[in-house]
Records
---
Amino acid sequence: MTPHDPAAGLTREWLPEPDAGADAAPRVYPVRTEEDLLEARHAVRAATLAAGFGLVDQTRVVTAASELVRNAYIHGGGGTLTIERLRRSGFRGVRLTVSDQGPGIPDVEAALTDGYSTGPGLGHGLGGARRLMHDFEIRTSPGGGTTVSATRWTQG
Amino acid sequence: MNGQKPASVPILRLGDVLVTGLLDELDDKSAMAFLDELTERIAADAATGVLIDISRLEIIDSFVARTLSELTTTARLLGARVIVAGMRPPVAITLVELGLRLDGVETALNAEQGMAALGWFRTTVSGEGPHRDDAP
């Protein structure tokens, strides 16, 4: 999928950026209204810029973020987006963590399949977001909400 | 915001073609309202072509893709041909990776080529135009 996939084995070992300023600390954004969806996109764009991502990588991450926060807004009844900037031996990363307290995803494998949709999308949202990111993890339980964590890396 | 209608994108009519565009800052509801308005204008103006400039869109996610597909289908049922023009290259790359092909949606590299496909051509002024100072 990606020519250089630094994802393998890196997710458990990430370190916060050493030059941790206000921009590098994790930031949490609400996902409650349609305006929040736009704000979330702006914040993700800014984080990818700060991490030195190229234009195509910026677009990939912002698009994935848009899918994930819209899922939380529509299916999860709203939630939060946490943006982290990561650094790991020659790579910089941006991790998105989207959490909601909705009904959960009953069949994660089905939800990751293209064409599966219970909402106003094309059914490519979750699976598409996974393809746009390097690391992708879903934690969900019936009635216990859903948390999706997704990271994309770039060299630098 | 505050219940006010957000600034809407103009829909211009050039002959039987409607010309408009999408802004990156449109939220979902505004985008749907705009496309409803566009559909009504297709019928009211008996348009046979619609050019939608999307060069301002910094991303297209599955929601926007679905919206464009549905608009294209609706317009076709009303007898109008939709051309989506000006997609940014990073957006095209991301759409493909997302698994979206915008099937059925006609595209053009830019608005000028889109208008040409809809039958509008930039004519070379032959020297007889009223605005030419050097006309014989």
Note: Chain B touches chain A at residues 1, 25, 27-29, 58-63, 65-66, 69, 88-91, 93-94, 97-100 (CB under 8 Å).
---
Amino acid sequence: MTTFVATVVGSICFAVLAPIVGCFLDGLDRKISAGMQGRVGPKLMQPYWDVRKLLQKEKMSVNTVEGTYIACALFFAIVAGGLFYSGGNFLLCTLVITLSSLFFIMAAYSTRSPFAEVGAARETLQVMSYEPMVIFTAVGMYMIAGTFDVAGLFDMRHPLICYGWPIFLGLLFILTIKLRKSPFDISSSHHAHQELVKGITTEMSGPTLARVQILHWCENVLFLGWTGMFFLSAGPASLIVALVFVALVYFLEIWIDNNFARVKWQVMLKWAWIVALVAGGINIAVLAFA
Amino acid sequence: MAVKQTYTDIELAQLLDLAAEKKAAGYRCVNTHCVNTVDGVDIIYTFVVDGGDDVYENYRIKNVPHHGHIPSIQGYFPGVFPFENETQDLYGITVDDMLLDFHFNFYSTDVSEPMTVITPEKKAAMEKAAKIAKAKAAKAAKDAKAKADAAKAAAPSATEEKGE
Amino acid sequence: MGKATIIPFGPQHPVLPEPLHLDLVVEDEKVIEAVPQIGFIHRGLEKLTETRDYNQFIYIAERICGICAVGHSLGYAETVEGLMGLEVPKRASYLRVILHEMSRIHSHMLWMGLAADAFGFESLFMHCWRLRERVLDLFEAMTGGRVILSAVRVGGMVRDQDAATLAHVQEVLEGIKDEYHEICRAFLNDSSVRSRLVGVGVIEHDDAVNLGMVGPFARASNVVNDVRCKEAGAYAELSDFTPITSTDCDCYARVEVRAKEILQSIDIIEEMIARIPEGPVFEKPKGSPADGAMACGALEQPRGECYYYAQGNGTKYLQRMRMRTPTSMNLAGMAAALKGCDLADVNMIVLTIDPCISCTER
């Protein structure tokens, strides 16, 4: 029962705090990218103004079910975040966030527009690319920590990274896919200048698109949390260390985004699976037999 | 640019043979375009061979009747489909046997055959120019007649003098 | 799976620089067929010769397209000068070549930025355009305009450029070279860029010749086709000119050809500045083109060979002015390259012909 209460409380806190943190991270991303490109860039709070503007727009959906699917996607993303940040079951968290992605894909398919359908197909391929590594991460975590509960990490003497660094590297690789950054931003990037107009979010506008934006913010906060999880331990300063590494990883992702062209889905699928099998497979084999 | 250029008038019946000949000789078709005149539409084809003499050879078919038909050279030069469709859309000349035919919908203009439309201002200008040319010709004829009369008047007096 | 869908690409699409419509028949992200449709920006500019005399029409010719503005004003002026038998002062023809080659640099840099954006490399796009700004600043210093210059008129140039300005041009272009080499390295050696360009949109040499392709699009398929070789105007004064070609025939080759042409243009400009003669820059045209007189001209614009034809009718209005732009010749090549490509490659292939649809449709 307490797990359920903790999850609910965690989800409510996540629902309030994650959009704020996510918005700030998005603004930071745009400002740093602009600096790398020799531009001034937008204000730090620009993403907030963008979402606010979107919320004020007229509802112009192709159908009513699209908004429902996006609302479900956002709901399950918040639940996944609540699960993770309340110290709950990591495996359940990964499955709930995948459910959220599936609702997002369904929303795009429901519009029956050619660009959205191709974008949704690509998003499905993206999910297929990163899921193996995510599962290996959960497995690796269980084998090292002995539990799927994130709260259990605070009882460990050494952080996960010590015995799970290949899995961590694999997770970093697919983090680029999950954060929708070049070279793996094939279904929808921050920029509309790509072959599919805006891909999966082509037919989404106004309040629906605002919710998609908030969904991406929540996802970003969650996935960066997964990265930070590798540095948690019983030590007093582990939380600080985790935050420092999360910041470094985020900066690395921005750097990668600015220095690579977008690849095609065949390349993304191939490399994500190779990395998952090599990094995840070797780490798990070592943990199982050593 | 002042490139080397030649101009030759040909008949419509010679067009396909010309295209075949140029294709076999390695020429490429640079351009096809039309000029609207009162007597019909002149169509000009331009060919050049790169690395050869670099001469732009222009062949003109004069006075194709308005709403007439011409054969397509897309069989030899597929790249000219925009120009032949333009000929149809803007000048109203039907081009037969095109490989890529947009059936008068390439540009989808509001006015059909817009390049053959002679606006009232242009008509007035043409009539004025024709009037001036006519007056000039009449004056020139009058001057020539006066000169001939004067010469005639001078000649009989000379013969009269001679005759005396 | 296996069902064919039709994806309407354009005319409004963020990746397209110009309005072009393609109905892509797609099966599982593979394009079976693509039929181009243009006509969204037809303005009937050629009919304006009836109401604008041959001196005024140059402003219309310039505004056919923003990127090719210098080229069109130059080609038009030289064709009309040929029609009237006018000899332009040598200094003017040198200045024209300098401006035209600078226009080629800015056009190719614009294109490289768009190509980088099309394959998702936004920062490379921003850097290309940042360098291009310096060329536009040069245009502004020389002529007062950044994009549409109005620097050429029938008979010569509108204004002369003094030695200090030409020295400044040389200095800025030299300064661009180092940063430009960095950008070239990113374009030509980066693995993710190569994965999007190599082997994409191949058009073999024979097909390129058959379809009558022109410009860097054709030269990338090893078709040696460059009006600058025909030695007309001040291009005849160049000590040595070899068109840049490639034998790879794919999108990567087209990027390579354009990237190298920028460096070649900088060299041409430096040679022209070093050898520019003194003298006047304008010869006032007298009278009007004769009735029935015809003249044609050609110019190697950034996108390829542009053909001009002018016919006079005895008045100050031209009977006919025709501007055949390079993109019209390349449309057939584009349609051929799109058959059988991946959906992700469509925008790359469309961009590699460097489409200037506003020029095509006038």
Note: Chain A has nine helices and no strands.
